[in-house]
Amino acid sequence: MKKILIITLIIVVSVVLGWLAKDYFPGRNTKVEQITEKILPKPLDKYTIQNLSTARIPKEKIEVGEIIKEDTNFTSYLFSFSLDPTLKNSAKKKVTGLLNIPKGQGPFPLVVMFRGYVDQKIYKTGTGTQRAGEYFARNGFLTVAPDFLGYGGSDPEAENIFESRFQTYVTALTLLESLGSLSDWDGNNVFLWGHSNGGQIALTTLEITGKPIPAALWAPVSKPFPYSVLYYTDESEDRGKLIRRELAKFEQAYDPDLYAIDLYYDRIAAPIQLHQGTSDDAVPVDWSDTLAKSLEELEKDIAYYKYPGADHNLNPAWNMVVARDVSFFKKHLD
User: What is the value of pTM for the model shown?
Assistant: First the structure.
């Protein structure tokens, strides 16, 4: 009799547990998971394109530092500013960069420049922007190019590889908000220039702000996150193992679409000049073809130039490209 009661009790418990399992564990979106999602913090939520578009970006003071180069037509300076990269009242971090001020009668229109990827081991202030920045300065444009956190004389970047990436947007947004502290800027005319991953930062900045800031893009990384990261994983020392491992964790907690630039092209209100070399071994030509087509279908103001035989740095067409950029900027001067 006792044995029968024990067996009966086991059956009853099994049925009850089975019922609970059906109710709470029916699939991916269970009640337990829903509750857990509400409880667990999601610190990277604040970096979605939508959330950054409504975030309050404080103005900071841009400090002009030592002279790096003296030229007949311009002077190059080191500059720095501080920001809270988390936008959550955490400790501020310093970002350094390269500033070119034309000689002559100011104030001047201004170009904010975002470089592409450079290995931290070989990076120095101005890498990736110096040559084009000096060309623009010779043609009467003030230029500012941030190093970003972890580079140059800047403070260290975030430990989380994706937060570090998203904080480049906060850096770009803070810099744009802080341009008024530069006395040599005319206070009105501002342009964006971005190369490779810097082109991706420029596009994302245009989506976040919705401002009509004319932008010149050189072979921009325009594939959506996280593919834009995965595409280059074979270049890392561990062949991408760390990135893929961290991405798996990220996708368990976050929706990558909320960080994907191709889903927010409709927010862009700026005229864009797009340049792409056909022999580019870093950004495939079809990426820029697709970007141009997507923007054209949305009836955005886009001019697309392809350069036969040109590489990722637009050589040997470099002189033609920067000349077109200057004409593009001057066309949009107020």
Answer: 0.86
